[in-house]
Amino acid sequence: MRNATFSQEPTAMMFIYEKAPFPSCHASTLIETAPGQLLAAWFGGKEEGAKDVRIWWSKFDGKSWTAPEVAAEEKGQPCWNPVLLKVANGDLVLWYKAGPSPQTWTGFVRRSSDGGKTWSPSEIMPAGTYGPIRAKPIQLANGTILAGTSVETYKVWTAYVDRSTDNGKTWTRSTPIQVPGRPYGLIQPTLARTSDGRLLAWCRSRDTGFICMAESKDDGITFGPATLTDLPNPSSGIDVVTLADGSFVMLYNHTKVGRFPLNLSRSTDDGKTWKPLATVEKSIGEFSYPAMIVGSDGKLHLTYTWNRTHIRYRAIDPNNPMV
Q: Which residues of the chain, if any, have pLDDT below 50?
């Protein structure tokens, strides 16, 4: 897998915006609010960590995206890593963080019960509680929300899964997700369940050069040791979805150095092995922090950072990803 060749090119791409009130952007998130209608959010401002960085969003009606609008801000502090979710009862939730750095984040949340027409004021979350830290959460049939989260301090990165049984109002935290012998280097889990009900968490790693995976047999309460997969990664964001046939698709940078290319791989054996599906971006640049969902049309819908100046959107048929 480490020497896999990616050659297939996906279809249907566009920038969410051509011009915006900010020069720099990053860390997009995406949901389908109704069949064929999407909502994307990201952070944008002078540069990552600048005091003018706010959360922005845009809506897609199947043909075009609306102009970016401010979704949230914290006066005098940068905002970070928005995450959107449509919960089982139809409500929409936006989580984001604000503060000088990942070490000093405060979590915030907004909610909509009318499909995103109106939103509640931002609510502050308890210290150390963020909901999903970057990748989208998943919701089980019993209503439990499982959110990949992580905590960064000046020496330690640690990944967890947070659980909520009340649509994100309160949370409990799993045991740490750690690689034995390298216990302090994983963040930003993305989640999927196997055909037999196990929960898998894939994390970015700052010191292994590969995506790491851990398994839970109790829906994210406890995790076994994380292991290295065969998927190289330069400690950059990843995302995973489950297709209708039960296979997994991962969106990530298939390299140990640099945030290009941006690739899709597919697993048909519950994450044991992966095969190349498509190259999303193959030129030199930064194509990173992707978000991906399976739409009601069965297609993969994805957004990602494009050279820190734009958020790019693509729609791909996972069964026919060629141009």
A: 1-10, 323
Reading the block at residue 194, the tokens are 């196997």
Element (H, E) at 56: strand 54-60
Using DSSP's 3-state secondary structure scheme, residue 283 falls into coil
Q: Show the tokens assigned to 75.
A: 């006066």
Query: Which residues 6+ apart lie within 8 Å of 289 measured at CB?
Result: 26, 27, 28, 134, 236, 237, 304, 305
Answering whether pTM is above 0.90, one says yes
Per-residue pLDDT tens over the stretch 237-260:
999 999 999 999 999 999 999 999
Distance CA 92, CA 11 (A): 28
Strands (E), 225-317: 227-232, 239-242, 248-252, 262-267, 275-281, 287-294, 300-306, 310-316
Instruction: Provide CB contacts within 8 A for 169, sequence distance 6+.
Output: none
Conformation bin of residue 41: beta by default, left when phi > 0, alpha when psi is -120 to 50: beta
Neighbours of 244 (CB within 10 A): 8
In the DSSP assignment, the letter for residue 182 is B
Per residue in 72-128, pLDDT (tens digit) is 999 999 999 999 999 999 999 999 999 999 999 999 999 999 999 999 999 999 999
